[in-house]
Fold this sequence. Notes:
Elements: E1 5-10, E2 17-22, E3 25-31, H1 45-49, E4 59-61, H2 62-65, E5 81-83, H3 86-104, E6 109-112, H4 125-135, E7 141-143, H5 149-159, H6 163-169, H7 174-180, E8 183-187, H8 207-216, E9 220-224, E10 236-238, H9 245-258, H10 264-270, E11 271-272, H11 274-281, H12 292-299, H13 303-315, E12 318-322, H14 333-346, E13 355-358, E14 388-390, H15 394-399, E15 404-407, E16 410-413, E17 419-423, H16 427-430, H17 434-440, E18 446-451, H18 456-459, E19 463-466, E20 475-478, E21 485-489, H19 502-513, H20 516-520, H21 525-542, H22 550-556, E22 558-560, H23 574-578, E23 592-593, H24 597-602, E24 630-633, H25 646-650, E25 659-662, H26 664-670, E26 677-682, E27 685-693, E28 701-703, E29 717-718, E30 745-750
Parallel strand pairs: 6-17, 7-14, 8-9, 8-12, 9-10, 11-23, 12-13, 17-18, 18-19, 24-28, 25-27, 27-29
Antiparallel strand pairs: 1-2, 2-3, 4-5, 4-19, 15-16, 20-21, 21-22, 24-30, 25-28, 26-27, 26-30
Amino acid sequence: MKSKRYKKITSSHWGAFEAIIENGTLISTNPFQDDLNPNNISKLIPKAVYHKSRIKKPSIRKGWLNKIQDRSKNLRGNDEFQEVPWDEAIDIAANEIRRVKEKFGNGSIYGGSYGWSSAGKFHHAQTQLQRFLNSIGGYVGAFGSYSTAAAQVIIPHILGMNFLHLMFNFQNTWPTIEENTKNILMFGGINPNNSKVSMGGSTRHENDDWFRKFREKKINLINISPQKIDAPMGSNWLPIIPGTDTAFMLALAYELETEGLIDRDFLNSHTVGYEKFKKYLLGEEDNLPKNAEWAEKICGISKNEIKSIAKKIAEERTLITVAWSLQRAQNGEQPYWMATVLAAMLGQIGLPGGGIGFGYGAIGGVGNAIKNFGGLSFPKGKNNINDFIPVARIAEMLNSPGSQYEFNGEKRVYPDIKLIYWCGGNPFHHHQDLNTFNKAWQKPDTIIVNEPWWTATAKRADIVFPATTSYEREDVGKANGGDNYIFHMPKLIEPLGESKNDYNIFSMLSEKLGNYEQFTESKGDKEWIQELYNDFQEFFTKSGIDCPSLEELKNKSWFKLDVVGKKFASKPFQDFRDNPNKNPLETPSGKIEIFSEKIYSFGYSECPGHPIWIEPDEWLGSKLTKNFPYHLVSPQPNDKLHSQLECAIADIPNERPTPAMINPKDAKILNIKNGEIIKIFNNRGACLARSILSLDIKQGVISLPTGAWFEVDGKGVEKQGNPNALTFDKGTSRLGQGPSAHTTLVNVEKIN
Length: 752
């Protein structure tokens, strides 16, 4: 019999691709025709979809199911699972949810999700979970993301707007930068790999092309980062000691002030609090001028280089950019605040191609000249529980229910969580200090997970529902910002085993819990997709932009909306610059807050009224380097997104444990050769890695990407190369309480 072979276009977080299906099996993928710089991540999809780690049937942990003493919570991660029929599993889960609700209230339920499980707009795990929990009375949620938590708190205080809105809708676009900018001062670089990923899919990966144009225009690209590869080719690399960017910025500010290079008129008309900050800058308060000589000893960049850069950025149109990585460290609010102050001192905020920018290269779409648009969002409903925690404070919450903590000027209390429902994402990938987190994870009565694979999180759950992948259900794909493509995401293959999509799982639970109508509104998944798309189409039709019907989209597979081009380029802060009184910012003063009276009133010594340099607990200038002489950074991987598709990579020979980049001079001291297995360790834990010797990383720094599935051997060593076995888990400050993974010292030894 002749085999049946066909091709389908679909979308993913890392871009659209062509799927080849033969006799109902997904066998391979090809790049999408419109993507001139595709990445290779999609090639792993067939292997991941059919991987032995797929969850085939509903499964319940035996210790929990058999009600062994305390339901053997301490065995999570080391217990066996029993497969049960769907109706039985749904009954058990519904009864447990009902028990917790009735006995402890909805404030004892934590809804955990990171959203990164599908580029589809309807089958969005986070939204599905939140709608379900809202339909049963609500849940304790989380503020912010592991990527941008500190920024999401500090930016509204100093610039008066939502950080994500600013990043996608209110920044200099690539065409504007090409035409106007002379210097791009990149703190943390502008990573060419991270930009190939986006929350709803990034179709055309154009950053490499733009930086080629920048080089042709002779734009001066300055990469201030411990890794050379954090910025595109042709950038001038200044290897900085991790965690010291604020000191470097302060020294630039000192040079600008003392050399008469600041725009005093702009500071007087568009900012508040400069004179208070200046006292600190000049050392009038602490007898410590923040000059180039002072900064050189802290950040490892020469005083002459600092002075030269200060002069250059004052003389020419300069865009100061800050990567997400800088605020993922202790006191991570400070570099974001200080970079904004530095841009204000130059007086270029509101000028085309000048001022301040955040997150370029951190995610796809930032910098694109596009009319951003909403729509295609499954409504979450109303959460009747007002309680929440900062996103990365889960371990503290579970370990210390009822204890008080501070966040953004509030005194808050950690809730007592009895049930966790996790759907989308893998906290045993993205949380810090996983050994401590693992112990905290033993505290709740019950943990329920929807998941396609036996991840570390699924293995540590009590009730596990097998969820479909994006390729086993129908959806519509559209990037959240910065992309003008929409995709029909067809069901490519039948669900593996007995897996069901999240909507169907929650519908079944809702039927048992008596909230079926509230959750489903009597609609199936296809009806919801049609309704959401109709609203989306209507929005564009009213805006005079051609948008196909869903049926037309299905027939064509994809459509490009006419919302890209220079005419759609944003003009960040231009109105504010032209008339700050008529167009004030949404800050208390209506201006850029160099000194924030509100933040000052919180009384946080680690985050006072203006930006300052504060020594992190762990950095290369610390006494701790006697035992832990290397600084560990944990960037995003370039071969996958977060921990997605990890199972397929882990099967490739010599790919695990994860490769760690080490400077050859450090490797020589450690007697480590390229490709050897090493152990990286500190007081929090230890993990294996595979050494990669490279001059592209600063001496004293080790780079170990995230994403390996957490797996600990009998001696307590994480085997796959997960850096979060080592990372520092303390809030960035009492203001932002963001994750501080990049504040981590380690030691290294060769495995003989």
